Each structure stands twice: as structure tokens, then as C-alpha cells.
Amino acid sequence: EDQPVEGKSWSVKYWADPGNEQWQEFFATKLNLALERSAGSWDGVILDEFLTGHTSTAAGWAGGGVMQAKYATDQAWQEAQLDFLRYVAPRVKVPLVPNVEPVVLNPTSEGFNPEFFTEVQRIAGGAEAEIFVYHRPDRGGFLGREMVQAYLERVRRTPPGKMMFLNSATAASFGGNPDLTLFTYFTYLLVAGPDREVYWTCKEGDSEIPHFWYREFDLDLGPPQEEMQTVGGLWKRDFANATVVVNPGSDPAAYSFPATFADVLNRPLRSPVTLKSQTGILLIKKKDGA
Fold first, then answer.
1. The sheet that has 279-285: what strands, in order across it?
2. Cα distance between residue 170 and residue 201, in whole Å
3. In angstroms, rounded to a whole number, what is the distance separating the alpha carbons of residues 288 and 166?
4. Dihedral sign, CA of 279, 142, 81, 205?
5. How far is CA 173 from each of CA 112, 136, 176, 264, rounded to the nearest angstrom?
6. For 230-256, what is the mean pLDDT?
7. pTM value > 0.90
8. What is the CA 202 to chain-centroid distance, rounded?
9. Residue 108 CB neighbour total at 10 angstroms
10. Which of 65, 138, 260, 279 has a Cα at 20 to 30 A from 168?
């Protein structure tokens, strides 16, 4: 059963029933036709706004505040979405990567269900987490520590051969803000690695906001030596040539270290270093004679 939804900023649309087999078949057929007519120029397909919360925020994302007619709970709606993927993903010629609504990774939401995210990855070609570390100021700003930790845990549980995109919306947020940009990048480094197809991605939202490039992006950190560790409320991870430390909390915190480190400009660092709230640092290992 389809239900009309009057969008706030978009045209009038309808809720499609993801559990309807005719809709599933129609979607797969139309998508394969588009792939065929584009002469195979697509490597994959993003399914934007793969809505996962029925009683929480999905209706708001769609624009009208009208709930789906057929599914009374988040759990039922999520299972219908998985049924949709189970039918469509094997029948489409390229990997599907659903943009999973952040409600499933928000511990305060009624639709909180991190395992749903991993199941989407398992069925499809991967998944995109649209809001990583920070959302635009009018949408709440910094994500809570628990929610960021849920994102990082999903990375660690990403099935082999599946992708994960940790996406940051730069509009009205990242442009010209090095502390925020680097905090997000350092948080990504806590789980990045050559054995994982996990990518930190950005979408500008407004074309006049450029992406900025920082020295930290070009450093050779070497391979990771461990998984993320928690040290006194901070998160840290050792690489062969550096240690990344992140403070996800709302208060300043100090990190002590016995080794000899320098900052990215090769200036010696003395232990301890104090990190402001929602900031991070790269500690570069100084080699003998350097």
C-alpha cells in the first residue's frame, strides 16, 4: 500500500512499500535498465535516504510528518527494508550502497538497532553512514560520544569485502574550520586500515564551500599497530610512525606518553598534552638522530 507524503521542500511523493514484491521487481528492473543505458559507466549505486525509523524520524526526513501506512513499528519497517534489499541486491548488476539513516546508530532513538546497519552491509555491497562525528549546526552539531562509538563499532564489524562510507556534511560546518576537520579525520583514523574498505567521505552541500587540504592528510603514518584503545576517557591508536589521540568528550582531558614525539611541524612535544573537547592530535614518533 502506498501512502502520499507532501514534502516540505520537495514535490509531493508517495511512501513505497519496500516489502511489496511487485515494487521490488519494478525497482530492480528500472535500475538495471538505467545501468544498461549508461553503457556500464557506474561502479555502484547509492540508495539515498534509506529510511530506517518509522516512529522516530523517517517521516521528518521524507518531509511531511506522515507515517507509513502499513508498518506500525521501527522493527517491522526495518525488516521490510531488509526484505527489499534481499530481493533487489542480487538482481542488480553493480553493488548497492544504501545511505542508512542515522537513527539506527543513535542510542537515544526508538529505532536504535546497530545490527541493522551491519545486516544492510552484508546483504548489499556496503553502507553509507551519512553523519559522521558532526552534523550542521542547525541539526545538532557534535554527535554524542555513544553515537560516534556506535559508528566506529560498525566499522570494526563490517563484513569482509563490504564497503563503509563515513560521510561528513561540510555545508556550514567544515569549510575553513581546521579543528573540526582534523578532529573528524583523526576519529576516522581510529578505525581505518588497509584490510578494511572504509572511507571518510565529504559532501559539500553548498558548492561554494571548498574542501580544504591539510598537512596531516599527507603524512605517512605507517600500518596500524593495534585497534582503538580507551585511555582515561580519550581514544588512541598506535601506528608504526605515529599515535593518534582523540578527545570525544565535552571536557578537556590530558594524555601522558613516555616516548619521544613531535607535532606535525616536527616540534618536540612534552608529556602530558591537553586536548580540548572534541579535538584530536597526531603524535609523530621521532627517530634517533632526527
1. 229-231, 234-238, 242-247, 279-285, 261-262, 268-269
2. 10
3. 37
4. negative
5. 26, 6, 8, 24
6. 96
7. no
8. 10
9. 10
10. 65
CA distance 181 to 257: 25
CB proximity list for 207: less than 8 A, separation 6 or greater: none
Question: Position of cell 584490510?
Answer: 195
How far does the chain reach from its first CA to its final CA, in angstroms?
69
pLDDT of residue 106: 86
Helix, strand, coil content of the chain in percent (nearest 5):
30, 25, 45
Tens digits of residue pLDDT in 247-263: 999 999 999 998 789 99
Burial class (CB in 10 A: 0-12, 13-18, 19+), 224: buried
pLDDT at site 60: 46
CB atoms under 10 Å from CB of 273, counted, come to 16
Q: For the segment 121-153, what is each residue's pLDDT rounded down to a tens digit? A: 999 999 998 889 887 766 678 888 999 999 999
Q: Crossing angle for the helix pair 74-88 and 114-123, nearest 10 degrees?
A: 10
Confidence at 103, pLDDT banded by 50, 70, 90: confident
Residue 216's identity, in one-letter code, is E
